[in-house]
Amino acid sequence: MKNQYLIGLLERVEKRNPGEPEFLQAVTEVLESLEPVIEQNPKYVEAGVLESIVEPERIIKFRVPWIDDNGKVQVNRGFRVQFNSAIGPYKGGLRFHPSVCESIIKFLGFEQTFKNSLTGLPMGGGKGGSDFDPRGKSDMEVMRFCQSFMTELSKHIGADTDVPAGDIGVGAREVGYLFGQYKRLRNEFTGVLTGKGRSFGGSLIRPEATGFGAVYYTVEMLKSFGEDIKGKTFAVSGFGNVAWGTALKITELGGKVVTISGPDGYVYDEDGINTSEKINFMLEMRASCRDKVQDYADKFGVPFVAGKRPWEVKVDVCMPCATQNEVGIEDAKNIVANGTKYYVEVANMPTTAEAVEYFKANGVVVAPSKAVNAGGVAVSGLEMSQNSMRYSWTSEEVDAKLHQIMKGIYEESYNAAKKYGMEGDLIAGANIAGFIKVADAMLAQGAV
After folding, report:
1. Residue 389 contacts by C-beta under 8 Å, 6 or more apart in sequence?
2. Which of 12, 175, 269, 419 has its CA 20 to 30 A from that of 128?
3. pTM across the whole model
4. For residues 150 and 178, what is the distance between their CA atoms, to the nearest angstrom?
5. What is the pLDDT of residues 335-353, one digit of tens each?
């Protein structure tokens, strides 16, 4: 980065947010992409748009007391970062995981702002969660926690203000408990949460949406480079909803997923994770709360590699679907050495900055998470629309709309990079396309 204004801005962000590496990593990546944009559009600098866009509009932090099954009071921390509402109500998931802290929630909310912008839907950026770990907890413990969490959160959200959704650790069970408590407290039935069950306002395709959307994006990416998904091999990490949806759609379109992974290691299925029995077993493993991908290897008689990630397997496309910064420099070296040409980020910021630079220096096409995984929030936005209309679309209708949104995201990102002299740089393209829509709305609304 050579622009002195951007260098100075990043220094101020670092000074204001010490000890928040995830947030600083996300901000640095975006600012680096915006150099040609602000040089051609000084209006954004003159109006202080960038100073505002890196600062959350609001951070809510609260304690969450709840009672475990032994009658003992436990206390966790709750967060909601309402980052930017320039183009719509705050929208973004809730994450329940021991790693949750202010830095992670801020990085996710910042990324969500641009991701939501890319969908073309009227949604601002937000994110929230808690350091509560639902794994190993009884249904009653999870319910009591969710009710306590929502008792405080309900003061700050609403269908036209802030609409949370699920994320890591927050699935259908948790969303149901959260929605029930909100309805009880506010005495209203609104689309205040997305990812709801079908019986109370949820949308079809929502559980599959992030994975499906990632594959639709990948199809468009491969087309632009003159290639087809059919016959391609894929390394996928994780084995939750996102990895499941990804494997399901890749198989449907003629590709072959050969790996999934968990905290204990990864499995390599040379024949492909390509039958309904194999793909749906991923959901059984997640529901078991054992968090062991070795269960797949034991059931289907395939190799299990303990303590390692799947990036040493030779494939055409790598798709990390687990969590942030799961792919480091050594993983990147393995991927490059294997001749992999396409690296598609499905999880939120799954790659360290050093690894991204290594990929780019070695000619690997990197598709960024804020574009690739926008399918989840896109269908959440479609769920909001259905709730507002008191109407429900069919699976085919939702899937067709999702496909069109993801196609639009790829085209918009590719064209934005090309316009500013960085053709083929999908990271820069996504950052620029997402930024311009939000920045123009902020300009129009003044210093607020």
Report:
1. none
2. 12
3. 0.93
4. 6
5. 999 999 999 999 999 999 9
